Amino acid sequence: MNEPQLIEATSASGPVHALYHAPAADGPVVVMVGGFDGGFDGPADGIHQVLALDLAPHGIGALRVDFRDHRSPGVVRNGVTDVRAAMASIHRRGVHHFALLGHSFGAAVMIAVAAEEPLAVAVIGLSTQTAGTQAAARISPRPLLLIHGSDDIRLSPNCSRHVYSIAGEPKQLVLLEGARHSLRQRKNDLRKLLDEWLVESLTEYL
User: Fold this and answer.
1) Pair 103, 127: CB distance under 8 Å
2) CA neighbours closer than 13 Å in the CB half-sphere of residue 13
3) 94 exposure class (CB count in 10 Å sphere: 0-12, 13-18, 19+)
4) How far apart, in whole angstroms, are the C-alpha atoms of residue 76 and residue 36?
5) Is domain 5-205 given the CATH code 1.25.40.10 in the classification?
């Protein structure tokens, strides 16, 4: 696989940086964000890069977005602006279907993006917070996958349970036994779950 391309998307609030792994032909792209501290790598010891490599043979691309603001608590609306700006830059290159993947604060951002963005076709929230997730009720009929560690002491698994309770179908909640907030304790299981779910959810757009 070729090295990802560093792109700079333009937003009303300033430039947004991302690493772009282009899909085959007109394939779909998975947009990935981490928590409030941003970065390109994601949780579970850098799951974003791993997923980009795993998905490439299936014709699925990846867009690893870094938030402009790295602060706690994060501002969900600012994150939404960043993600939508990055998506718009890739849409102009001919991509028409996006899956959204976010961790912690980033999960809330992706849920909010999905409620506003018609190009989003599937959503994954890892170790999600509850603040900013009210829009989960508007994701249906697009599929939603929520994954949380049973031993997360930063954000209780009840956060994902709450989001699951307000979301419409189709939806799935997976609790990874023994995993904490970063999910690194079950990273191999997480990788397999994400790979399979994303390929299944995006096959019709290939």
Assistant:
1) yes
2) 15
3) exposed
4) 9
5) no
Q: How many CB atoms lie within 10 A of CB 158?
A: 12
How far, in Å, CA of 146 to CA of 10, rounded? 30
DSSP code per residue over the chain: -PPPEEEEEEETTEEEEEEEEPPSTT--EEEEE-STT--SS-HHHHHHHHHHHHHGGGT-EEEEEEPS---SS--HHHHHHHHHHHHHHHHTTT---EEEEEETHHHHHHHHHHHH-TTEEEEEEES--STT-GGGGG-TTS-EEEEEETT-SSS-HHHHHHHHHH--SSEEEEEETT--TT-GGGHHHHHHHHHHHHHHHHGGG-
- pLDDT of 12 reads 83
Q: How many whole angstroms from its chain centre is CA 46?
A: 13
| pLDDT, block means (10 residues), the chain with 206 residues | 87 93 93 95 97 97 96 92 97 96 98 97 98 97 98 98 98 98 98 98 95
Q: What is the phi/psi pair of residue 81, to 5°?
A: -60, -45
The pTM of this model reads 0.97
The predicted structure's pLDDT at residue 2:
66
The structural domains of the chain, with segments of one domain joined by +, span: 5-205
pLDDT value, residue 107 = 98
